[in-house]
Design a protein that fits this description.
The protein is of the alpha/beta class and 399 residues long. It has helices at 3-13, 19-30, 32-45, 124-137, 162-165, 178-189, 199-217, 240-254, 268-277, 291-307, 374-381; strands spanning 62-65, 70-72, 98-101, 107-114, 144-151, 170-174, 222-229, 257-262, 284-285, 310-312, 321-322, 328-333, 341-345, 358-361, 369-372, 387-392. It has 3 domains: 3-45, no CATH class; 62-103 and 311-392, no CATH class; 107-307, 3-Layer(aba) Sandwich (Rossmann fold). The chain is built from 11 helices and 16 strands. The chain has a 7-stranded mixed β-sheet with strand order 3-16-12-13-14-15-10. The longest helix has 19 residues, at 199-217. It is elongated.
Length: 399
């Protein structure tokens, strides 16, 4: 802010009667070098009127226009961002900026379900069918879009036709759409187990679909793959490292996350290899004691881990102005009314190690999403009433 802007704000704040304050203002205006240091203190102690919005407030959005010059939105909060207040969020509250509820990124999920003959053992197929049916119709999953493909089935088999495996038998649709929910349930009910376990072709097809879907969607959604199996590879390439390479390539090309869910009979070490390659750390394992409930919990955990921890990068409504990635902060307010805290930024996902309650950009050079580190994500997931807000206009707090 220029010295002239400080002079104008100070006069506005000191417009009410008060000879001592007017005298102080005159002295400050005469000594411009001291103004920056004393004006905030004077404004904090004077109770004669509200700040204009240029000092000590969060009513204006500081952005950078296309030429690199600074710009501001007005105090009305136009442009889709609501003005914030001065209370309770620590450091970011001390500068001019605005805050708005963080917007979760919609998630599209390709689910590839093993229907090999072994799924008929120990009632695994019925348990899986029941768990998925409950998941599909659960209102808590309404924010998800789901495509479904079974394997080995309808050409996705030991012929190893990846293109066929990449074609969902239930096309992508919203779980908020009852017709789509019913189509998914009907498809499951129409299938019966049989055949080997061509895991390589199934995962290759699923990740191929996901990469293409992510390319079409751009930054408007997050695409993930969920692979469910009860066995080890049998048919096509059976080398687990080669199979996991599909998940690794999908993440490298389009940041596709791959979740591996192993039912009884699966090889836990192999599921972990796929999950790690797909950047989801470890597989989910379902025992046979209460398989339906455990699978349902795994599906919900996958949903929550994706939906709760990724937020869209704010975009200015003014095409001549862009949001400065170096002036973005993320605040967390506990649902119990505790003090708001700011999550700090780290350079990348790799910098999340050590339990950092922090966040990072999906792409530091051209960010499209704000992603929570695992420790911060777990904190938010454990607090159903938590509020996450994006604060714009203040220098990003970094580790």
């Amino acid at each position: 802010m220029s010295p002239r802007s400080h002079d104008h704000s100070l006069r506005h704040a000191l417009g009410a009667p008060g000879s001592v304050l007017r005298a102080t203002a005159a002295l400050l205006l005469a000594t411009a070098p001291l103004l920056r240091a004393t004006a905030p203190l004077l404004l904090a102690t004077a109770s004669i009127g509200a700040c204009s919005g240029e000092i000590g407030s969060r009513l204006s959005l500081n952005v950078t226009d296309a030429s690199g010059a600074g710009g501001q939105q007005d105090a009305s909060g136009a442009g889709g961002f609501e003005p914030g207040d001065d209370a309770g969020t620590g450091g970011t509250q001390q500068c001019a900026g605005v805050e708005n509820e963080a917007t979760k990124i919609p998630v599209s999920m390709f689910i590839a379900v093993d229907k090999s003959g072994s799924m008929e053992d120990s009632n695994k197929w019925n348990n899986a069918k029941s768990a998925f049916s409950k998941f599909f119709v659960d209102p808590a999953a309404d924010s998800l879009n789901v495509a479904l493909r079974f394997w080995p089935d309808a050409g996705c088999d030991t012929s190893c036709n990846v293109a066929t495996c990449a074609m969902p038998q239930a096309p992508l649709g919203s779980l908020a759409d009852q017709a789509h929910e019913q189509a998914l349930v009907n498809l499951f009910n129409a299938k019966t187990p049989g055949g080997p376990t061509p895991m390589d072709a199934a995962l290759a097809g699923a990740t191929e679909w996901a990469i293409e879907q992510q390319a079409q969607a751009g930054t408007s959604e997050k695409v993930v793959v969920v692979l469910v199996t009860d066995g080890e590879p049998n048919g096509c390439n059976e080398n687990i490292n080669a199979i996991a390479k599909h998940a690794e390539n999908a993440y490298a090309k389009a940041q596709i996350l791959t979740f591996a869910v192993g039912m009884q009979g699966s090889n836990e070490a192999q599921m972990d290899v796929i999950a790690k390659a797909g950047m989801t750390t470890a597989g989910f394992f379902i025992g046979n004691g209460n398989a339906e409930a455990e699978l349902l919990l795994a599906l919900k955990a996958i949903q929550e881990s994706i939906v709760a921890c990724s937020y869209t990068m704010p975009i200015s409504d003014d095409p001549d102005q862009v949001v400065d990635p170096a002036q973005v902060n993320l605040s967390y307010t506990p649902g119990d009314g505790g003090a708001t805290v700011d999550f700090t930024q780290v350079a990348s996902e790799n910098a999340c190690a050590g339990g950092q309650e922090a966040w990072y950009y999906d792409d530091p050079n051209a960010p499209t999403a704000i992603v929570l580190c695992p420790a911060a994500c777990e904190k938010v997931q454990a607090d159903d009433a938590a509020k996450i807000k994006v604060v714009l206009g203040c220098a990003t707090k970094v580790k």
